[in-house]
Amino acid sequence: MAQELSASHGVEIVSVFYSDYHKKPLVYPNHAAAIKTFENFRKLSMQEQFKTMVTQLEVIQQLKTEKLEELQKLREKNKRMELTIKLHKMKIEDFSIDMINLEDLNDWIYVMREYLKEIKETMKARVNKEGSISNIS
């Protein structure tokens, strides 16, 4: 876990694990790097030391928060993709207001706007291709 945190967040991390089953502690990344990190830490003022210390629980909570935010964004993106697919499958003559769930109204509005943008772009491209001078905006 320390290796992933060090790589993903670009911070200097040292981990020392003690076990009843081993005589020597397990040190990440290695003994020399751990000593150097601890020496650098000692050189900091007490206030700076306090700011830079984090517990494993704090790190896990921060990672959890980040992952939950990513998950929420993915859920929103997937919801919009589902609505877009549903919109493409519907025929205009089959459409009724009953098909729209009020909880999804904002997502539907977003999807419809994006769909209308695509239609306008397609129309502009065809007009430019045919050389017409219509007002499409």
Compact overview of the structure:
By secondary structure, the chain is mainly alpha-helical. The chain contains 5 helices and 2 strands; from the N terminus they run αββαααα.
Summarize the helices and strands and which ones pair or pack.
Blueprint: H1 2-9, E1 15-17, E2 26-28, H2 31-43, H3 46-52, H4 56-89, H5 105-130
Antiparallel strand pairs: 1-2
Helix pairs in contact: 4-5
Question: What this model shows, in words?
Answer:
Residues 57-91 form a coiled coil. The chain is mainly alpha-helical. The chain folds into 2 domains: 2-53, no CATH class; 75-130. Helix content is 64%, strand content 4%. The chain is built from 5 helices and 2 strands. Strands 1-2 form a two-stranded antiparallel sheet. Helix 4 (56-89) packs across helix 5 (105-130).
Strand arrangement across the biggest beta sheet: 1-2
Strand-residue fraction? under 5%
Name the overall outline. Answer: elongated
H/E element sequence = HEEHHHH
N- to C-terminal distance: 54 Å
Low-confidence residue ranges: none
What structural class is derived from the secondary structure elements?
mainly alpha
How many whole angstroms does the radius of gyration measure? 28 Å
Number of helices: 5
Q: What is the domain total for the residues?
A: 2
Helical content stands at: 55-70%
Overall mean pLDDT stands at 78
Tell me about the biggest sheet? 2 strands, antiparallel
The number of E-state strands comes to: 2
